[in-house]
TrEMBL record:
Annotated keywords: Membrane, Transmembrane, Transmembrane helix
PANTHER family, A to Z: MAJOR FACILITATOR SUPERFAMILY (MFS) PROFILE DOMAIN-CONTAINING PROTEIN, TRANSPORTER SCO4007-RELATED
Entry protein name: Putative MFS family arabinose efflux permease
An annotated Gene Ontology molecular function: transmembrane transporter activity
The keyword Transmembrane is annotated on this UniProt entry: yes
Positions of transmembrane segments: 15-33, 53-70, 82-100, 168-188, 219-239, 251-269, 281-299, 305-322, 350-369, 375-395
Length: 415
């Protein structure tokens, strides 16, 4: 069965949950390295800046893959693209587990980022399958799986790395992606092309989308600067816990559970938006991220045990704020569903613009976080996060009232 671009079928609950799981498994691949960075550093005899390149290259690969590959979803069958990427990601994860040194590890990390973009192919596919009026709810369900993958991946990686070594988590992840490729191939329908543009035309149209839609630009820039704070924290947490407290990767991974609690709570943003409006929700979310990092900074004067307690609690609240800007039940609740309302015929390209900018922020946060940790310690990392999240709050506070959604044809996108 092929889904035409104008169809709005009601997807089954098992299909939506499978897509959510697929998105979660895919995006989790970006974060397995973070809680085991100290183990990788010790095993391969790396310096802190060298180990910091691992998550940085993964995020750069993700941004590059989004920009170069995601627009293909508007031109070709998304089912085929999703399955091919799942198989390629499984291969890259397997090769990463065998990496003998830094150069091989960096190359496979980059390619993991490129192929993990299948998560962002799944999200617009869910939007296409959702009936009219239920896009926000459907996207919210899939995005919940995606964000759970982001956060729980650290917990699983930390525990596995502590007991079986850092290579084991990549082997396990490769097996999961192979299985998921088969399940998605069986369950997903075929998708008709939504654009007739050539590949160069698809890439050129990204500039037209950026130019034409101010809400897209502000959403992308806000998520990018919030991502700097998010990534700087998670890229350095394991290193900080080992250096300052002598704690292992399992403890670093356990902080992912705190983050997951925040992500789950973020689903309530939909109901809150119905009452007070999407604009206020995004402002509150950015403010909560900034306040959380300020709390971590002020905790430096407390005893070590109290510092860890504050960091754990603030991890819940800043992930709640961060995920509330991405996950929603209702249309226009979050940046993501706001973007999809702009031009339904260009879902893949809108996603490409939003997440290329967002994960560029992630990559910047990773490299800045590890460099700042080496130069100024943990207080410097928190200071960086406060500045970045404060910038995101400023962007939301100065945002004009939302305008009615407009559409952009392929011809306009090329202009």
């Amino acid at each position: 069965m092929t889904i035409p671009s104008s169809a709005t079928p009601a997807p089954s609950r098992p299909l939506i949950l499978t897509m959510a799981a697929g998105a979660g498994f895919a995006v989790a691949s970006l974060y397995y390295a973070q809680p085991v960075l100290q183990r990788i550093t010790d095993d391969l005899h790396l310096t802190v800046p060298q180990s910091g390149l691992i998550p940085t290259l993964t995020q750069i690969g993700y941004a590059a893959g989004i920009f170069l590959l995601l627009p293909l979803g508007d031109r070709y069958d998304r089912r085929t693209l999703i399955v091919v990427k799942a198989l390629a990601l499984a291969l890259m994860l397997g090769l990463c587990s065998l990496a003998p040194g830094l150069n091989t590890l960096l190359l496979t990390s980059f390619l993991i980022g490129v192929t993990a973009t299948l998560a962002q192919d799944i999200v617009p596919a869910a939007s296409i399958l959702a009936p009219a009026g239920q896009q926000g709810r459907t996207i919210g369900t899939v995005m919940t799986g995606l964000t759970a993958g982001i956060l729980l991946s650290r917990t699983v990686s930390g525990v596995v790395g502590e007991h079986f070594g850092w290579r084991a988590i990549y082997l396990i992840a490769a097996a999961l992606l192979l299985a998921m490729a088969g399940v998605l191939w069986r369950m997903l329908p075929r998708f008709a092309a939504q654009s007739t543009l050539s590949y160069p035309g698809l890439l050129l149209s990204l500039g037209g989308l950026w130019k034409t839609h101010p809400p897209l630009r502000r959403a992308a820039l806000t998520t990018a600067v919030l991502s700097v704070a998010f990534s700087a924290f998670w890229s350095t947490l394991a290193l900080m816990l080992h250096q300052r407290h002598g704690l292992g990767s399992d403890v670093a991974g356990a902080f992912g559970l705190a983050g997951a609690a925040g992500a789950i709570a973020a689903r309530m943003a939909g109901a809150l938006s119905d009452r007070i409006g999407a604009q206020r929700v995004t402002r509150l979310a950015a403010g909560l991220v900034m306040a959380s990092f300020v709390a971590m900074g002020t905790a430096e004067a407390l005893p070590m045990a109290a510092q860890l307690a504050v960091i754990a609690f603030a991890t819940v609240t800043f992930d709640l704020g961060f995920q509330s800007s991405l996950v929603s039940h209702q249309t226009l609740v979050s940046h993501q569903t706001l973007v999809y309302s702009l031009d339904p015929a260009a879902r893949g390209r809108l996603n490409a613009v939003l997440f290329t900018v967002m994960f560029s922020g992630m990559a910047i946060g990773s490299v800045l976080g590890t460099q700042v940790l080496a130069l100024a310690g943990w207080p410097g990392v928190i200071g960086l996060a406060v500045i970045a999240s404060g910038t995101g709050l400023l962007l939301r506070l100065t945002a004009p009232a939302p305008a009615p959604a407009s559409s952009l044809t392929d011809a306009e996108a090329e202009a």
